[in-house]
Amino acid sequence: MSGPHDLAFDPWDPAFLADPYPAYAELRARGRVVRYEPSDQWLVPHHADVSALLRDRRLGRTYGHRFSHEEFGRQAPPPEHEPFHTLNDHGMLDLEPPDHTRIRRLVSKAFTPRTVERLKPYVENLANELVAGLVRDGGGDLLADVAEPLPVAVIAEMLGIPEADRGQLRPWSAAICGMYELNPSERTAAAAVRASLEFSEYLRGLIAHRREHPGEDLVSGLIAAHDEGDRLTEQEMISTAVLLLNAGHEATVNATVNGWWALFRNPGQLAALRADHSLVPTAVEELMRYDTPLQLFERWVLDDIEIDGTTIPRGAEIAMLFGSANHDPAVFADPGRLDLTRRDNPHISFSAGIHYCIGAPLARIELAASMTALLRQAPTLALAAEPARKPNFVIRGLEGLRVEVR
After folding, report:
1. Phi, psi of 69, deg, nearest 5
2. pLDDT, tens digit, 9 for 90 and up, residues 148-174
3. In degrees, to the nearest 5, what angle opens at C-alpha 290 toward C-alphas 270 and 115?
4. Where are the alpha helices (DSSP H) in 213-334?
5. By C-alpha distance, which of 368, 345, 340 is closest to 268?
6. Tally of CB atoms within 10 A around 160
7. Which domains does the chain have, with CATH numbers?
8. Pfam families, from UniProt (predicted)?
9. Angle between helices 186-212 and 234-265 (to 10 degrees)
10. pTM to 2 decimal places
């Protein structure tokens, strides 16, 4: 294993952030697992390994169900970060069976395919309204005007958050998601803690109100959901609502702007899409593969595992590189080429195994709705200015995407 000093992989380098895919190719050539000291992780860059490890029960999103911090050779988080961890650690994304199984089963009762399908007309109407506004103005920021308000409104509508309160959701979410980057700063942690406290307090009030006045919304559904005497605790409800909001829009916002930025850089593919709107479903999948909104997913090693002759000990952390896996030539023919007709596309942008994204069907509806509305109403949509990329690695997105309707 070579040291990090001779790796092109550098998640803090703006040149790497602009285009990490050549560095991934180099990582894949190095082998199936590479030790990366700056983040104290083992990087896994190949699709087959990422796919298998996502389903491997020797890895976990948490270790608290089996070990104390001391037993696992890890330090407890600083006490001042506790509000963030209380919120984060009770969400199903950061739990393992049996808690994960119980909570996901209860949430699934409220988050059914029928619930999602019932939202489709709302999603499509809202997408059309937002795009009509953009067209009326002759253009604007695709991120602020369409990509962001659509999924935020949809998940807020699902959760039953009143319109007047929705402005706070995105700033809270952005502050909390800062903690998912590699080696977050103390300033990032302080902002995440503040947002965790405020968001939790807000949801506690909303849950109390819904207990008295239940509605058709997801929060009312979470309160009512029970299974063989099992119910969600209040903290589990709060953590679930925050997870659904954060996961339910961060990835969709970034998939939208990353996708359109990729289309503007591939005018032949954009022209083909404009000529044939029936390509939208495969285009959505290909754009999520081509520039993956979630680049990395971390798991703890609960029992020693071996990858290609290298033993990775209990207590280590594995970083599965979704962006690299989605560009693995062993699985995707000519992975660096954007091909909106790509049929064989087993990308792992929605993860896999027990943590497969529960909101994937909703994300697909949102992405297809905004893309279709833009193709129909703004057939001359063009890039107005080169976008700036956010200085984040794990959650990959743009600061904005200025467009014009000619």
Report:
1. -55, -45
2. 999 999 999 989 999 999 999 999 999
3. 90
4. 218-224, 234-265, 267-275, 280-290, 322-325
5. 340
6. 18
7. 4-405 (1.10.630.10)
8. p450
9. 120
10. 0.93
